């Protein structure tokens, strides 16, 4: 069987084929579907969507939330605004070292070797480590701008790329 004839994976959260996102049109104030990899957009559900799951997801409003809930893994570095944590009184790694370490955790998380919440419990420099990196629900303007932007851009079950803030570098998973 060739790769082109195999069906694409469908998100168990949104019902959309892999790579597709739900966005809100500013001019029409309604949902549309966008694939950032191919830069395709459509008003109709893309081919291969699970329409029952997609309709349920849209009906719940999860694609345009007033609040989101995330787990995150924070790695601080010596130039972080507070280069100390529950693990270390003085963090000396460089930003580049923190990014490289986070890239390795990202690879393991995305491959399914480990869960972000489990890694956060032992490796995160945030006080949320004791809750698996869970920050609870938060709304707009409650987090640093780059963290907020990344969190609200995710759909439930998705992971962010590495996000830099004054606190350090993060990997974010939207959970609600």
TrEMBL record:
GO CC terms in record: cytosol; nucleus
EC number(s) given by UniProt: 5.2.1.8
Domain WW per the UniProt entry, residue ranges: 14-48
Gene Ontology process terms (BP): negative regulation of transcription by RNA polymerase II; negative regulation of ubiquitin-dependent protein catabolic process; positive regulation of rDNA heterochromatin formation; positive regulation of RNA polymerase II transcription preinitiation complex assembly; termination of RNA polymerase II transcription
Keywords tagged on the record: Coiled coil, Isomerase, Rotamase
Gene3D superfamilies on file: 2.20.70.10, 3.10.50.40
Boundaries of every PpiC domain copy: 65-176
Pfam families (alphabetical): Rotamase, WW
PANTHER family linked to this entry: PEPTIDYL-PROLYL CIS-TRANS ISOMERASE, PEPTIDYL-PROLYL CIS-TRANS ISOMERASE-RELATED
Protein name: Peptidyl-prolyl cis-trans isomerase
Biological source species: Kuraishia capsulata CBS 1993
Lineage per the UniProt record: Eukaryota, Fungi, Dikarya, Ascomycota, Saccharomycotina
